[in-house]
Each structure stands twice: as C-alpha cells, then as structure tokens.
C-alpha cells in the first residue's frame, strides 16, 4: 500500500478553519462523490486510489517545525470528517491528482502530477462497501478504543487504500488522546468490515520546541518512500566549516501499523550519534553537534515486523536545519 496521501495530510493541507460550515462532517463516500467531477476535469479516466480524513476538536495539530489549526469538529468519533483528501490516479496520464472535499461543500484541487513512481498508489479502490462511519463504529467496539475517543481532546485519523491489486481495500482508523496518554489503531477490511489488526499503546506527546532558525541557518527538506523493492533511501548534503549544529525533524506514515521508517546521519559512511533525540508516535526530533565539515548523508530505512513483501512501505519527510 504505497500512498503518499498520509504525508500530504500531515503537512498542513487541512488548514480549513476559514471555510466554516455546519457541525455535521462528511463521510469518505461523500468526499469521493463530491470530488469526482473536479478530478474528471483533470483527467477523464481519473479513479480514486486512496483517502485520508481527520477528526479533531479544533485544537492545534503540532509537529516539530510547524503547527496547523484544524477546523472544529464537535463530533469526533462518528466517522464524519470536516475535510477529506482524495488521491486520484489517471492510467492514461500515468499521474496523480489530489482533491480536498470540505463539509460545507467546497472542493479544492490540492495539487497534481506528483509523479508516476512506485511511491504513489495506482490501484483504484475496488470492492469498497464499508464507509468511514461504519469503519469507526467497528473500531469503537473495542473498549480501550472507545475510552480514547470519549476523551475531551480525542482526535482521529482515517486512511483508506489498497494494499495491492489482488487485495481488498483496507481502513486504518487511528485514535489518540493527550489527556489519556494513549493511542489505538484498528485495521479493517473495507469490503466486509472484518478486523485485521488492533494496536494500542502509550502516546508520548512531549516534543521539544524548535526555535526559529537563525538568519544564517540553512533549511533542507527531503521526502520519499521506502518499501520492499527499495528498503533504503539516502540524501546527501554538505556541511561547511562554520556550521556547528544540525537539527532533524523526521516524520513518516506507514502503510500498515507495523511499518515504520527510521533514519540516521552518516559522515564518511559512519553513523554519528545525536546529542539529543526524542520520538513521539511517528515523529522524531534529533539534534547533532557538527564537529567537522564535509559530505554528510541522511539515510532512511524501512522497518517492519511483517515480511518485506508487497504492501509493506513507509512514506517519510525530513526537515534539516543547519546552523
């Protein structure tokens, strides 16, 4: 399930507070129906290949390096998001297109032509019977999941995609609460609603704040996907004689709850250790003391408890600040 939609969701495309609308959100099927004409204007053969939605009670969604004000959703846990991103694929153009459907009826084109590489999904959603409302209802049948959703600060993320051409589509329903300090993820078949996996655990929400980069700082951004075909990826960058500090903000979205991406910083092929490092869910912040100029490398590798076969992948983004 190679979808960059998760990464797109987490970099702030849901800044929608100014759009307003009623309290009632929209379901995933609503979002596809509302977005279809806009996608077909782009390419007549466009088909939906993945969706992502978020439910929050109007709080700030914070990650190292940025924060996003989400649109108020007073009914977190009903499977009706204030906004959905839909990723479309055109076989004729061999390209992808993203639409955003909001609860007030607005549909925006968030971008197109992200490239036909193996990182992007191409398999149209098929045999999709379970809408987001039913997916959340099934997820909430678990007592701990239900407890997290009932928290005053609960927030949810919903993703639908195809693991591969031979499989049915899969829902990943994620709930978390700072108040409870817990998260829960339910993975469901979107054809019959069968529960494929459940994961729960402690959620550490403490992330060291990142000060604004000084005027002389350089900011580099890298992104990509690691999967069974390409389990490692690397990006080179130069450190000058006057550079003393490297800060790394790294985040990823796994195709399955068991999939993750991990990174390291190399100098001359050898890994260097960070002076400080802290992880919160799928976000890691690390700081390095730079003791020598030269050619450095950001190395990213896939980690999964599942066999590295078809459908195992993780999409990542990294922001490096050198000063």
Overview features:
single chain, 323 residues, mainly beta, Jelly Rolls, 5-stranded antiparallel sheet, 44% strand
Describe this structure in words.
β9 and β10 form a beta hairpin. The chain has helices at residues 5-10, 28-42, 132-139, 143-149, and strands at 47-55, 60-63, 66-69, 83-90, 95-102, 107-112, 155-161, 170-177, 182-189, 195-202, 218-227, 232-239, 245-254, 259-267, 270-272, 276-280, 283-289, 294-304, 313-322. The strands form four sheets. Strands 6-5-4-1-7-8-9-10 form an eight-stranded antiparallel β-sheet. A five-stranded antiparallel β-sheet has the order 11-19-13-17-16, with no helix packed on it. The protein contains four helices and 19 strands. It has two domains: 5-202, no CATH class; 218-322, Jelly Rolls (Sandwich). By secondary structure, it is mainly β. The radius of gyration is 20 Å and the shape is globular.
Task: Give a short overview.
The chain is mostly beta strands and 323 residues long. It contains four helices and 19 strands.
SSE blueprint and pairings:
Elements (H helix, E strand, L loop, with lengths): L4 H6 L17 H15 L4 E9 L4 E4 L2 E4 L13 E8 L4 E8 L4 E6 L19 H8 L3 H7 L5 E7 L8 E8 L4 E8 L5 E8 L15 E10 L4 E8 L5 E10 L4 E9 L2 E3 L3 E5 L2 E7 L4 E11 L8 E10 L1
Antiparallel strand pairs: 1-4, 1-7, 2-3, 4-5, 5-6, 7-8, 8-9, 9-10, 11-19, 12-18, 13-17, 13-19, 14-15, 14-18, 16-17
């Amino acid at each position: 399930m190679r979808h960059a939609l998760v990464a797109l969701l987490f970099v702030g495309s849901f800044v929608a507070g100014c759009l307003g609308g009623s309290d009632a959100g929209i379901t995933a099927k609503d979002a596809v129906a509302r977005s279809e004409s806009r996608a077909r204007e782009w390419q007549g053969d466009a088909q939906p290949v993945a969706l992502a939605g978020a439910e929050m009670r109007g709080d700030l969604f914070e990650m190292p390096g940025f924060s996003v004000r989400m649109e108020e959703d007073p009914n977190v846990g009903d499977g009706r998001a204030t906004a959905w991103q839909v990723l479309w694929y055109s076989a004729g153009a061999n390209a992808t297109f993203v639409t955003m459907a909001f609860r007030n009826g607005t549909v925006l084109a968030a971008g197109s032509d992200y490239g036909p590489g193996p990182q992007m999904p191409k398999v149209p959603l098929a045999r999709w019977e379970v809408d987001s409302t039913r997916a959340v209802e099934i997820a909430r049948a678990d007592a701990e999941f239900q407890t997290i959703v009932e928290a005053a600060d609960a927030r949810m993320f919903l993703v639908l995609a195809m693991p591969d051409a031979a499989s049915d589509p899969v829902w990943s329903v994620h709930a978390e609460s700072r108040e409870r300090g817990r998260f829960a993820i339910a993975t469901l078949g979107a054809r019959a609603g069968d529960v494929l996996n459940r994961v729960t655990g402690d959620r550490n929400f403490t992330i060291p704040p990142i000060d604004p980069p000084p005027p002389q700082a350089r900011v580099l951004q890298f992104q990509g996907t690691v999967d069974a075909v390409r389990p490692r990826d690397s990006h080179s960058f130069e450190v000058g004689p006057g550079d003393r500090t490297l800060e790394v903000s790294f985040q990823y979205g796994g195709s399955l709850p068991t999939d993750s991406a991990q990174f390291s910083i190399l100098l001359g092929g050898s890994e260097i250790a960070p002076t400080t490092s802290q992880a919160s869910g799928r976000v890691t912040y690390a700081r390095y003391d730079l003791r020598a100029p030269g050619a450095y490398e950001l190395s990213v590798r896939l980690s999964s408890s599942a066999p590295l076969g078809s459908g195992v992948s993780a999409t990542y983004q990294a922001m490096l600040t050198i000063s």
